[in-house]
Amino acid sequence: MKALALLATLVTGALLLYGTRDFPAWGDPAAPASTYLSPTYIEKAVEQTHVPNIVTAVLGDYRGYDTMFETVVIYCAGMAVVSVLWRKKEEE
Amino acid sequence: MRDLNEHTAGEDLIITTAVRLMVPFIQLFGLYVIVHGHYSPGGGFQGGVILGAAFILLALAYDLKTSQKFMTVKINAILGNLGAAIFIGVGVLCALFGGLFLDYSALDALIPLGPVAWRSFGIFLVEVGVGLTVMSIMVLLYWNLSSGGAMDEGL
């Protein structure tokens, strides 16, 4: 079972690494993210959201879904730890 | 403050005094980081961690019971759930008032502040929700891990 898990991890990792070959080079000015996404955020963020901090504008508004599920992930992590660890007084 | 003074017996005077002085400022700084996320680095996650750290520091310097005098397990659970509910509730409200989910400008139909101002204010509401949840979960994790789930004395 351990060998199977290791094999699955290695195969998945190899596939992911193979996928990165198609990525644009790091910092490539011709990459899609640099040609329209970043300039749009930089030019429009203050105008569209009145938030001078672009990071907050992207985090809270443009990527609101992402932030919501980050919060839900933290919430679920807390609930998981509590459900595993928390003991009632009588059981001691 | 009187509650804190009763618990100093057997504990290091320097540490407890320093913590007693530091905790209000840490909490104030946490609130500042949350509400000032629009203008400076910060926001719900960072501010929530700082607010949680204040209670964890209290629990480290005194014990779990002392920190639970200032925020009981019940209030902590309510705040954590409330935070997640604020975030999702704002999103659902936006959808109910005719926009997309989490499209804050739709809330202009509720209170007319202007669509752009609502996007700014919506981000603020959401950050407050994130901060409450992160604070609650941080403190809850520390309480549970340090006491082995018994939630009594702790370390």
> What is the overall shape of chain A?
flat
Identify low-pLDDT runs of chain A.
none
Helix and strand pattern of chain B = HHHHHH
N-C termini distance of chain B: 22 Å
Name the average pLDDT of chain A: 88
Compute the average pLDDT of chain B: 87
Which pair of chains has the greatest number of interface residues, and how are they split between the two chains? A-B, 32 and 40 residues
Pairing-aware structural class of the strands and helices of chain B?
mainly alpha
- Put simply, the count of helices of chain B is 6
Number of strands of chain B: 0
Which residue ranges of chain B are poorly predicted, with pLDDT under 50 across at least 5 consecutive positions? none
Based on CA atoms alone, the radius of gyration of chain B comes out at: 18 Å
Largest sheet of chain B: none
Estimate what percentage of residues of chain B fall within beta strands: under 5%
User: Could you state the oligomeric state of the chains shown?
Assistant: heterodimer
The percentage helix of chain B is 55-70%
Task: Give the total of domains of chain B.
Answer: 1
State the end-to-end distance of chain A: 36 Å
Number of helical regions of chain A: 4
Q: Profile the largest sheet of chain A.
A: none
